[in-house]
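Weekly sync notes, structure subgroup
Attendees: PM, AL, DS (notes)

Item 1: joint prediction request from the bench team. They want all three components modeled as one assembly rather than separately. Inputs as received:
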Amino acid sequence: MPFELKPAPHITPPTSVPLVMRRLLYALVPAAIAHTWYFGWGLCINLAIAVCAALAAEALVLRFRRRAIRPGIADMSAVVTAVLLAFALPPLAPWWLPALGAASAIVLAKHLYGGLGSNLFNPAMVGYVILLISFPIEMTQWLTPAELAPAADRLGLWAQLTYSVTGQLPFDLSLDALTQATPLDQIKEGLGEMRTLNEIQIGPLFGSYGGRGWEWINGWIALGGFYLLYCGVIRWHIPVSLLAAMLSFATFMYAVDPSRYPSPGFHLFSGAALLGAFFIATDPVTAAGTNGGRLIYGAAIGILTYAIRTWGSYPEGLAFAVLLMNAAVPLLDRYTRPRIYGRA
Amino acid sequence: MITGTVILTALTATLAILLVLASRYLPPAADPMADRLERLLPRIQCAQCGYPGCHAYAVAIAAGSASINRCPPGGDETIRELAHALGREPEPLLASLGNASLDKVARIDESLCIGCNLCARVCPVDAIVGISQMMHTVISTHCTGCELCLPPCPVDCIVLEPRDD
Amino acid sequence: MTEYQIHRHMTGGVRLVARKRMSTARTINRTLRPKRLIIPMTQQLGPPATPSVVPGQRVITGQPVGEPGRAPSAAAHAPRSGKVLAVEERLVPGGSQLLKSQCVVLAVDDKSTDADIEPASEWPNLDADRIQAIRNAGIVGLGGAAFPTADKLGATERCGTLILNGAECEPYISCDDMLMREHATDILRGTQTMLDLLGAERCLLGIERDKPVAIESMAAAIADLGDARIRLAAVTSKYPAGGERQLIELLTGMEVPSGKYPIAAGCVCQNVGTAYAVGRLVRLGEPLTTRIVSVTGEGVAEPQNVEVSIGTPIRELIEHCGGYVGDVPRLILGGTMMGYAVSSDELPVTKATNCVIAVHSDEIRDRYEEWPCIRCGDCADVCPARLLPQDLLPRSRTYDFDQLKILGLNDCIECGCCDVVCPSHIPLTAYFRDAKRAQRLHEQHQHLADTSQIRYLRKQERLRLQDEQSELHHTELKAQVAKDSGSRQETIQAALDRVQRRRNSDDRIT
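Output from the run, pasted for the record:
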């Protein structure tokens, strides 16, 4: 009776790619609930559309590339891309916005570069940037947080769905009444009009740290991030270096002129700083591959994000910062290799 | 808009002219392509590519008159390296060429050898020792499996065997 | 105070479930009486031994059956008395794969009179003779690499530290653990002998922390012995703490230079089993004919450690331990990280066999799917050689030898740590082994190509010189002939003149 011949080692790894992806999704659940609480059902609708579009795009592209479809879908990487993209989109979005974003992320950013593991740029960020540049108006239709909006101005699930599919709002509401700029947006506009921060941040939109609602959502994102650290899904290098660099820069500028430069706490809890630090910049395929490289990568993203927020044309700079540093990753990997045992 | 177009066109034209002048008059790369390609070949001079020696084949590849899949002893490994050096896709080895292989060595059956010396004269790397009218033998560490000694032997006393080190 | 303080942490490595308790519950079993022995001539890292017996011959216990080849090689002996059935080529286990070897096949008759045992040899006084005695006793490294011990101890470079490897980091293997529990004195006797032969100043014995009984046993024996040169250290139980390079890093803080052996760092590393074999040789004058083998896994009825005669077929060994239990799809020689699967149990136990695992189908979960590399870098975190497997992988697939050299493929110790943490379930170690094989072949071909080119150019030069010389020779000859023919013409003319004058004078006379 011949025994089977398999190569060493004869131990199966306890982890797997679908498990890593699933854990990422679990970590985002609390943040998704908070987002829905503050901004309504928009996120859930966008999530559903983005995930479906991403899976459909993935299946179609795999068919064209003559690869097996089932493993490509089952590894859940397309779902993660779609979810991260949906978090970046405004809740009040027509259906084609998340659909187009997810499809372009999967096709252009992932499969054109070779598929899972071979892409140079973060697919969710590529999708986001394509949407941002092509549809600037739809990409800035953010809503008033629930606590601030009068009941009459809040959209229920049916109304949200209707808007998403048909673009029609309930007859007594208008876009002007519903939408409101994000805290980062308001600051950029206000500073542009030469108002001081104290004047801008007086409005009810600004909570203790970041914007109303946003503080809580980002807090839950950070907790999700700690869960990922605990499970070993991500390492500490990128989150720590990203946040440390961004906050150091912010603290320095805040000390120089607190009336023009928001506090570090504000920067930390608004926009996508925490989402980027724990979920986006840590994407293993597109981030640096060595620990030394990761520290530089994270720090550079933190600095670039702050720079774009403060001096660039866009209110939030994380997506561009990530894409710029993605391009630098091969160089970082080349020059931050650890010293091999036994070599000088 | 007109100024922009004019400036860009002028810039492009200037740079193009500079590039052409540089490629024509500046000294060429220190390491000509043919030598670089030759270093990737097995250099056993078996001539099964159809060229009289590896240098000639390398020159022909560099000139574009020979394909990169003509070297049997080099096999797929050499094709891959040539393709990589030239930025091309590897092609399968031409089956119609010979069977020279680096993993084989020739062996003379000493009982049949008549000492005609024809094999030693034709061996490109002097791996066969022997003088006229005396028995000849192959030094297997120097033998490259090029098969050039097989045709001239009048008594057919040479065989190819797998290399065993 | 025999406890030695550890200098360094080990880079990388993984914590594995040890799975050793099943085989350490019983003491070493010494009752195995094999019926047949297949003694290979290639049981060492070096040229094979030459068989010195013929079929039909009767041999006695301890009689040499194989003469050592060219150094580094070792002798082979008959572990039991019996009749030589055949001397033939068979497939036998090597260090990391099966190989073909000449074998002496013995039918054991096991008569146990004194006449059936080779007389014990005297332990000599001179170092050179002692090393020769170790070579004649067929002692090789029993940690798995099987390097002839005599050649390691006879090295000419300076050795300051003898490292004794009692770490045994791989899961399932427990033979060294049991040896240290039951034979501490003989191990130390061998250690002292090796220290003297090497001229080393100290011996550091490394034992993994999860073997408290072995640590206690060795510590007590060291205390009794009172030799201040020998010190014990408990090292981390992370795999691969027992790898030569890793253990040296752990115990001394030094790194063995890339591509060199530990002697380059002034150390010689020996397994405790090797020290034991030397100790027995010194005490009893017996050659190496047995070793302890862990027979384990849920697929064997009574997992334990057995003192096995070299050459015992593995099937007899497993039957001695109660036979197979249930469905056993895989048989592994070695541990689960670096051991290799074999297709049949008709193979013999060799000096390099430290463990046999009968893997039950419940014990192993196969990786059924492989995903592309997601560049998570977990592999780089655990690599003890500080390599980047995620970068080595794509180049191993395309055989990019230049980059592989830069990235350090040759420093890979094939420990398998990267494999067991990979979320994509990529068989990294298999790719690296294959790339190394292709690299070796490539280097051989490169060398042949370079020397062929030189020889070709030299031949062209030789022929050119020959042509030149023969040109020159012809020109000289022609000139010579021209010169000669000039003076020859005069001689001929003078002779003709002489004849003419005589004829003329003759005409006037008549």
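Discussion: The CA atoms of residues 120 and 327 of chain A lie 7 Å apart.
Action: AL to compare against the crosslinking data before next sync.
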